[in-house]
Amino acid sequence: MIQSLLVGLIPGSAYALIATSLVLTYRMSGVMNFSQSVVGVFGTYVGLTLYGSGYPQWLAILVSVLVGAALSLVIGAIMTKWFDEATALVKSSVTIALMLALLALGFRLFGDAPRSIPRLFPGAAIAVGGVTFSASVLITTGLALTVGVALTLLLEFTRLGAMLRAVSERRITAELLGIPATMLIRVVWACSGALTALATTLVAPNRPSNFLTLSLLLLPAMASALFGLFRSVPAALAGGIALGMIEGASSYFDAVGPYRQAMPFVVILAVLSWSQRNQVWDASR
Question: What is the tally of structural domains in the chain?
Fold first, then answer.
């Protein structure tokens, strides 16, 4: 049971990183970014292609992150240049169109056949009290926690964080005060793409590795971001790790294991129902 929970930390950390990226882009641009996970998968597959051509693994991972950042920056530039004043529905619809375009391009370039993706830290593990902690679990979870804590501290206690909060909450006022809002928003988009590509690269060896299946990481990531209603980085981080551990624990039970892929939908339904409880109670009264 404990080992199953630990295994769930790897996808949970990936969910947390992608959810954090979703929260950042939503807070800065008001965009429900449906293209987020496809950007990460695209970057991962570019790196995988380089690795298959004989390049070092570390270089392939670096290229994956850079490609994810570049693609997300392009999407951010499109959103800020042509859809800045659009409604949230229009913005989200644009990201759906971009997601479909990237999926089509990805299928064209990489195909949809499953690929063998090498583990980043094969065989490395630490045993404590009869429980084995693999290097993948420790590094992936540590990275997710580090990123979450670092972003929280940056947003709350730094000048850059104050500018980002100002742009997020009152963009026009921030621009009048001389804050380069558009540039900051695009930087956030680029960083979110880099995080998503890194998360996808870390979790890919532990999942069915074809382009479409990895793109579906968007669903548990959105469920994780909903823990904080797309506003809180710590809540998204906690939600992602919790969801991964729930999936891991469910695989331990034969009756529940076949349905663990439905967990994100259950979480989404539960969080949305809970978030609307006040309105329901007020209407009842």
Answer: 1
